[in-house]
Amino acid sequence: MALPVATFLFYLTSLPFLVFSKSTIEPCSVSDSCNALLGYTLYTELKVSEVAALFQADPIAILTANAIDIYIPDVENRILPAGLFLKVPTLCSCADGIRKSISTRYKTRPSDTLASIADSVYAGLASADQIREANSIDDPSALEVGQTLVIPLPCTCFNSTDNFLPAIYLSYVVQSGDTVPAVAAQYSTTVTDIMNVNAMGSPVIKAGDILAIPLPACASNFPRYATDFGLTVANGTYSMTASHCVQCSCGPGNLNLYCTASSLAVSCSSMQCRGSNLMLGNVTSQATSAGCNVTSCSYGGFVNGTILTELSMSLQPQCPGPHQFPLLVPPPTFVSHESALGPSPSPVPSQPGGTIPTPGSSIPGTSIFPGSSPANGPAGSTSQASPLHLLSHLIHAILFWLISKFLL
Ligand SMILES: *[C@@H]1O[C@H](CO)[C@@H](O)[C@H](O)[C@H]1NC(C)=O
Ligand SMILES: *[C@@H]1O[C@H](CO)[C@@H](O)[C@H](O)[C@H]1NC(C)=O
Ligand SMILES: *[C@@H]1O[C@H](CO)[C@@H](O)[C@H](O)[C@H]1NC(C)=O
Ligand SMILES: *[C@@H]1O[C@H](CO)[C@@H](O)[C@H](O)[C@H]1NC(C)=O
Ligand SMILES: *[C@@H]1O[C@H](CO)[C@@H](O)[C@H](O)[C@H]1NC(C)=O
After folding, report:
1. Burial class, 58, CB count within 10 angstroms (exposed 0-12 / middle 13-18 / buried 19+)
2. In a mutational test of the pocket of ligand 4, which residue from 222, 229, 269, 304 has the highest number of ligand atoms less than 8 Å from its CB?
């Protein structure tokens, strides 16, 4: 099995067109999809709602994926600075046998060219050739103003795992000056892991390449018929689901998805766990001689407009403390010089502390926010690439570096 794959890789990488940008391709066959993230650098000042419109994404989803506080007034009209790096959530589908995000449409404006749309507006996430092919454009110079273009965007699923742990994949456009060790440190992963995931023979990247970066995440196990089946939330971030009724978060203390009522939506179905007086996210504990008797009311998915809840009891060695939420930051107003040059996975807080994500947690003592900034500080990941891991990547999704033009 491994031999033909290796031969194929060698053949492709020995072709002379490596001067073009490379991106990681994940073949797929079934028509499933997964949550993925697009690493997007703003080409100009844009409102939150304008960024969302570029990707036909929910503004709230973009904010929560970046741990930006959504409960400040008029947050969708906040202006974000040019050069800001954001993680934009997208649905990663399977189309033409490879993973890509195909839900984005762009309406052309005066003076747009395919190259300016690809390189500037979408910050290198798509190439002019890919846009041309996706829209069967014969003559790129005859672009009409107001024409709607499909913008195919790169994404990967890899079973939403990395080293057998839940992960969500970020499509990262390499900036000039980036090195694999620096990118690995920025995202608390290892050079080996990035090389394995992207099937790289050597840790060499250049500006414009697109890397798949695994981010540790909290997985859900909602039933397949739930509309939010497969929900995966990156460590340190939030996600709104169930028509904005439910807010889920991941980390920082552990990678168990934690969901509670949000106060964004006005009409929501019941969030009380049947047979108890506990609401979604409530945890009660009682110390007993055998250990701590923990009862929790957790979220089980959104089905037919109904919020599924699950009451679970467990005996744990110690009673859990108050739930810790990921730190929230206000909408960034500037981009620091460092983060403009290098990858910046999360916006830099422009004022200390975070605000409180739910009305429930505003009760003093029911939640703790880490006081320090979550930014930077590589956690010194111990993730090691085993031959088995490498093999699993090769087998379950044959990856290769290739100019995107030929496959996307
Ligand atoms: C996919 O992930 C699930 C858990 O999310 C795991 O049980 C399964 O073994 C994985 N499949 C492969 C092929 O890695
Ligand atoms: C999750 O993020 C927190 C801080 O944001 C970090 O301390 C922790 O190590 C991360 N967990 C994993 C598994 O990466
Ligand atoms: C644990 O708590 C639940 C609910 O409070 C109760 O029904 C159950 O009997 C308790 N179990 C033990 C072992 O104390
Ligand atoms: C959702 O509702 C439809 C029609 O009301 C019903 O046929 C279907 O079985 C429901 N699905 C689930 C998972 O309950
Ligand atoms: C249960 O959750 C509700 C809503 O999130 C919150 O208002 C309430 O304070 C919580 N109760 C307990 C005992 O934690």
Report:
1. middle
2. 304
pTM of the complete model: 0.81
Average pLDDT over residues 125-145: 93
Computed over every residue of the chain, the mean pLDDT equals: 82
Q: Is the CB of 293 under 6 A from ligand 3?
A: yes
Structural Rg of the chain based on CA atoms: 22
Tell me: pLDDT of 352 over 90.
no
* Residue whose CA is at the smallest distance from ligand 2 atom 6: 252
Cα 93 to chain centroid, rounded = 14
Domain range annotation of the chain: 22-217, 220-316
Query: Which of 43-57, 170-184, 223-237, 393-407 has the lowest average pLDDT?
Result: 393-407
CB atoms within 10 A of CB 8: 12
Ligand 2 centroid, distance to 255 Cα (angstroms): 8
Using an 8 Å Cβ cutoff, are 175 and 131 in contact? no
All residues at 6 or more sequence positions from 106 whose CB lies less than 8 Å from its CB, including other chains: 54, 117, 121, 122, 148, 149, 151
pLDDT confidence of residue 265? 79
Q: What is the pLDDT of residues 271-320, one digit of tens each?
A: 999 999 999 999 999 999 989 999 999 999 999 999 999 999 999 999 99
Residues written for the chain: 408
pLDDT at 54 over 50: yes
Please state the atom number of ligand 1 nearest to the C-alpha of residue 392. 14
Q: Where are the alpha helices (DSSP H) in 198-349?
A: 337-341
The CB density around residue 127, as the number of other CB atoms within 10 Å, is 25
The structure tokens listed for 38 are 């697009």
Q: Is the separation of the CB atoms in 187 and 195 below 8 Å? A: no
Give residue 392 CA to ligand 2 midpoint distance, Å.
25
Give start and end residues of each alpha helix (H) in 138-243. Answer: 180-186, 191-197
- For residue 391, the cross-strand partners are none
Whole-angstrom distance, CA of residue 36 vs CA of residue 92: 6
Quick one: average pLDDT of 148-167? 96
Query: pLDDT band for position 354 (50/70/90)?
Result: very low
User: What is the 400 CA–ligand 4 centroid distance (Å)?
Assistant: 41
Measured between alpha carbons, how far is 273 from 294 in angstroms, rounded to an integer? 15
Say yes or no: CB of residue 295 within 6 Å of ligand 3: yes
